[in-house]
Design the sequence.
């Protein structure tokens, strides 16, 4: 093996030092890319390339195997949405029923309730959660003392690493019927409140939990974007008499724009996945009406009752709607001249 | 101390105070619940009774809750399960992710694009819960610890971050090794990995935290509650306040059927919290690198 490598591998690479040497001033990346294309795509036949690259291919094999088994096979398995699937009969022999599962789904009021809950919560969090990491990042960025800033940063990042069970437990201890808030209220002669079981305030509760858990972590990417803004812009603007507020409006926010759009898209694509565990954990306490989202619907309505095909249909609808949302969001981003998560093709 | 540039106007005292108050509030809102939980878990029953709930001011301290939890039984076992799943899972995930990230780090290599596309597709479409469950169960993994590891062993995000980092390593470095006749494995082990300790630490933390916190996989795939990981135990006995002794060999006396005391509940919370708090500071300084590379180059 080593002998064949020495024939193919370095041959392509040996041309490179000369190539890069003559074009010292050109930035590294484009040179590398063009050299690659010239050296790898056109000159060497597929067999030689295969011989050179097979160790690389072997390295990707375990990851591919896992993805195929636990991602692609389930996607293919979604065909049971068009069947009346029974685990005792198997996919091959279960009868095909066309779109009837989807028709039932469209007539199922509890499916629509779950969909409406999911979308409401998503829109609510988009308005009340999404801006908070941005504001927090600007606040953190304005701390001039480096050490204070690092300490505050590491503290606000921390809750991101707590599990949802833990976060919900902590909130219960603070705001539940026997929690700290009720305790303090009762000590002062008021009635205790139990925010953990109140369906009317549930949306506020889950948003507060999301903020507590993830707003700090969400600042990381904005802080990096802020750090990438050229400080001379601020200086020049200040010299020209721009106020703090004007600098924020005309330098900081435009600097953050690509990141904001990127995260908005990611958020949209993830919209139908609004914190599954979070709702799963609180559904019993708050009740179905307020806390049923699409995923919990699939779990309770179908997995526990064994209506596999029905659940697969609901899952498929959710997946496809999510895909459509992400594609639309990306199109919009391209329209605004931003990159989005994948490039225009 | 303060290093604000010369052109910046001096902040007004009112503005500075407001900022200080706001920051303090934010920090306190994160730390205070944790402080109370830890304190309550170390408190005597009398201190808890006197406080009428969570303890805010240190009173009588005791290790009774922890002694009881670690004397064997549900929680001890759950901690061992979670530690085992986390250790094995993180090791496996890191190996698979590093290999794949390195394998894909050379643009223009054979099949590089289709494989990358296969991985990126997982961002766009989520297979449903039911088909995933059917796959796991037809592999016979229900009630096996592997069901907590294999389905989530590769996170596309982590893979993409790692790959972006490897691609940032100057090509000259790896090329020179290749000219000296090093194989890909040697280059990865001796050159690329030693240069990537920071990103490996971060990705390792992401995986470890993922496994330690994993909850829903266990709800789906583990029916036997003797095999429950810690997060499920936390939900059962703390969030839902069920008796910790129920279903344990059937011996339930009247006293044991009561929900566990608050100190014990909070001790379970602390046990779930501690590993995260413990590794966090060591990895924390590399965070920005990991997350930002992923976002910019993904």
Sequence:
């Amino acid at each position: 093996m080593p002998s064949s490598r020495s024939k193919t591998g370095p041959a392509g690479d040996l041309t490179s030092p000369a190539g890069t040497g003559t074009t010292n001033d050109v930035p590294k990346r484009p040179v590398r890319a063009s050299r690659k294309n010239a050296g790898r795509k056109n000159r060497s036949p597929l067999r030689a390339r295969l011989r050179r690259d097979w160790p690389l291919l072997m390295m990707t094999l375990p990851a591919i195997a896992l993805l195929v088994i636990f991602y692609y096979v389930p996607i293919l398995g979604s065909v049971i949405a068009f069947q009346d699937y029974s685990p005792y009969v198997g996919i091959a022999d279960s009868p095909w029923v066309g779109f009837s599962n989807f028709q039932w789904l469209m007539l199922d009021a509890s499916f629509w309730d779950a969909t409406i809950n999911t979308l409401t919560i998503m829109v609510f969090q988009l308005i009340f959660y999404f801006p908070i990491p941005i504001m927090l990042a600007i606040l953190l960025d304005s701390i001039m003392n480096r050490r204070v800033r690092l300490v505050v940063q590491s503290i606000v990042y921390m809750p991101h690493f707590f599990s949802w069970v833990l976060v919900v437990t902590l909130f219960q201890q603070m705001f539940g019927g026997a929690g700290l808030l009720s305790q303090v209220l009762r000590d002062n002669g008021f009635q205790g409140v139990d925010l953990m079981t109140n369906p009317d305030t549930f949306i506020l509760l889950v948003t507060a939990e999301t903020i507590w858990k993830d707003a700090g972590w969400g600042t990381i990417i904005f802080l990096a974007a802020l750090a990438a803004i050229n400080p001379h812009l601020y200086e020049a603007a200040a010299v020209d008499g721009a106020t703090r507020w004007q600098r924020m409006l005309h330098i900081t926010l435009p600097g953050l724009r690509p990141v904001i759009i990127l995260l908005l898209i990611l958020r949209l694509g993830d919209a139908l996945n609004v914190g599954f565990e979070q709702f799963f954990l609180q559904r019993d306490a708050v009740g179905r009406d307020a806390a049923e989202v699409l995923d919990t619907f699939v779990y309770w309505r179908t997995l526990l009752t064994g209506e596999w095909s029905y659940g697969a249909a609901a899952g498929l609808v959710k997946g496809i709607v999510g895909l459509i949302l992400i594609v639309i969001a990306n199109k919009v981003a391209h329209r605004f001249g931003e990159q989005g998560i994948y490039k225009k093709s | 101390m303060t290093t604000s540039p010369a052109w910046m106007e001096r902040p007004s005292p009112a503005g500075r105070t407001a900022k200080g108050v706001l920051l303090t509030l934010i920090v306190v809102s994160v730390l205070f619940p944790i402080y109370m939980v830890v304190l309550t878990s170390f408190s005597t029953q009398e201190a808890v009774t006197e406080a009428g709930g969570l303890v805010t001011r240190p009173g009588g301290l005791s290790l009774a809750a922890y002694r009881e939890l670690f004397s064997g039984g549900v929680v001890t076992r759950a901690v061992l399960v979670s530690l085992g799943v986390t250790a094995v899972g993180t090791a496996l995930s890191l190996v698979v992710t590093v290999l794949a990230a390195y394998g894909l780090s050379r643009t223009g290599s054979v099949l590089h694009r289709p494989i990358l596309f296969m991985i990126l597709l997982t961002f766009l479409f989520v297979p449903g819960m039911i088909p995933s469950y059917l796959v796991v169960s037809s592999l016979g993994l229900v009630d096996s610890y592997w069901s907590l590891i294999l389905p989530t062993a590769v996170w596309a995000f982590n893979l993409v971050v790692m790959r972006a980092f490897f691609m940032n390593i100057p090509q000259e470095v790896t090329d020179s090794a290749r000219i000296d006749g090093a194989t890909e494995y040697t280059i990865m082990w001796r050159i690329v990995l030693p240069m990537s300790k920071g990103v490996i630490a971060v990705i390792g933390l992401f995986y470890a935290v993922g496994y330690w916190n994993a909850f829903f996989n266990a709800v789906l795939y583990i029916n036997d509650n003797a095999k429950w990981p810690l997060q499920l135990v936390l939900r059962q006995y703390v969030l839902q306040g069920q008796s910790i002794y129920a279903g344990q060999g059937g011996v339930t006396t009247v006293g044991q059927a009561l929900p566990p005391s608050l100190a014990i509940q909070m001790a379970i919370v602390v046990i779930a919290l501690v590993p995260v708090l413990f590794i966090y500071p060591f990895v924390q300084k590399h965070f920005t690198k990991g997350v930002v590379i992923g976002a910019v180059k993904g």
Q: What stands out?
A: Chain A has a mean pLDDT of 81. The longest helix of chain A spans residues 46-77. Chain A touches chain B through 117 residues (CB under 8 Å).
